[in-house]
UniProtKB/TrEMBL annotation:
The gene is coaBC. The chain holds residues 173 to 394 of 394 of the full protein. This is Coenzyme A biosynthesis bifunctional protein CoaBC. It comes from Acidocella aquatica. Catalyzes two sequential steps in the biosynthesis of coenzyme A. In the first step cysteine is conjugated to 4'-phosphopantothenate to form 4-phosphopantothenoylcysteine. In the second step the latter compound is decarboxylated to form 4'-phosphopantotheine. Catalyzes two steps in the biosynthesis of coenzyme A. In the first step cysteine is conjugated to 4'-phosphopantothenate to form 4-phosphopantothenoylcysteine, in the latter compound is decarboxylated to form 4'-phosphopantotheine. Residues 15-222 are annotated as: Phosphopantothenate--cysteine ligase. Residues 10-218 form the DNA/pantothenate metabolism flavoprotein C-terminal domain. Keywords: Decarboxylase, Flavoprotein, FMN, Ligase, Lyase, Magnesium, Metal-binding, Multifunctional enzyme. Its EC number is 4.1.1.36, 6.3.2.5. Binds 1 FMN per subunit. It catalyses: (R)-4'-phosphopantothenate + L-cysteine + CTP = N-[(R)-4-phosphopantothenoyl]-L-cysteine + CMP + diphosphate + H(+); N-[(R)-4-phosphopantothenoyl]-L-cysteine + H(+) = (R)-4'-phosphopantetheine + CO2. In the C-terminal section; belongs to the PPC synthetase family. The lineage of its organism: Bacteria, Pseudomonadati, Pseudomonadota, Alphaproteobacteria, Acetobacterales. Pathway: Cofactor biosynthesis; coenzyme A biosynthesis; CoA from (R)-pantothenate: step 3/5; Cofactor biosynthesis; coenzyme A biosynthesis; CoA from (R)-pantothenate: step 2/5. Its cofactor is FMN; Mg(2+).
Length: 222
């Protein structure tokens, strides 16, 4: 269907998008986080909605507004993000753009940790669940199309291809987060890996990357 002459190839489809960082508590006042701004994931959620999808955006703590026309669920930790994603299933497509904390503090302190004049505390970490790998695992609730991101600082194509195979997702959007300007920045230069091979996109605004990705997803479901 067309509204105002705009194609809506994703109408009737449900999309889940993860975005932003996670905060993994150390104690009630401290946490482990990362430099993700949520700009890319939020732009993807908005672009999918613009193509007619019903979008559930599961967002870690970010400093940007909820996109219009999207149902946004706010979470802090990776465990909460996984629970919110599972609660939002089923979906036709999932895009995991969040920079999920790889580790949490194994036993976060219940009270603010205090200096006691001795050695600094050592943080014992535990690995977080992999939301993208869970979504990609075969089963009745697997979305037909699962798209991951790969944040790398070196060997981009090689590491991203290995990540795609390891996680079992359909497409990987690989970006080089080395140097400055990408994480938290306005632009992104990505490599899209799929069964069709690798496609290098030029350096674009995050909004343009989101638009191209949404178009490609729209064509997939056409
Ligand atoms: N991801 C996820 N849950 C995690 C870790 C990552 O859903 N616990 C997703 C990210 O949203 C992204 C993809 O997996 O779509 C790749 O994230 P990345 O950090 O690049 O890869 P990792 O598998 O965590 O490996 P590493 O950080 O060691 O490179
Ligand atoms: Ca990681």
């Amino acid at each position: 269907e067309a509204a105002l002459g705009v194609a809506r190839p994703l109408s009737g489809r449900h999309a889940i998008v993860t975005s932003g960082p996670t905060h993994e508590p150390i104690d009630p006042v401290r946490y482990i986080a990362n430099r993700s701004s949520g700009k890319q994931g939020h732009a993807i959620a908005a672009a999918l909605a613009a193509l007619g999808a019903r979008v559930t955006l599961v967002s870690g703590p970010v400093g940007i507004a909820d996109p219009a026309g999207v149902q946004t669920v706010h979470v802090e930790t990776a465990a909460q993000m996984l629970a919110a994603v599972e609660a939002a299933l089923p979906a036709d497509v999932a895009v995991c753009a969040a920079a999920v904390g790889d580790w949490r503090v194994a036993a976060a302190a219940g009270q603010k940790m205090k200096k006691d004049g001795g050695a600094p505390p050592a943080l014992q970490l535990a690995e977080n669940p992999d939301i993208l790998a869970r979504l990609s695992a075969p089963g009745p609730l697997r979305p037909r199309l699962v798209v991951g991101f790969a944040a790398e600082t070196e060997h981009l194509a090689e590491y991203a291809a290995a990540k795609r195979a390891r996680k079992g997702c359909d497409w990987i959007v690989a970006n080089n987060v080395g140097g400055t300007g990408i994480m938290g920045g306005e632009e992104n230069e990505v490599l899209l890996l799929s069964d069709e091979g690798a496609q290098a996109w030029p350096k674009l605004s995050k909004r343009e990357v989101a638009g191209l990705l949404a178009d490609k997803i729209g064509k997939f479901f056409a």
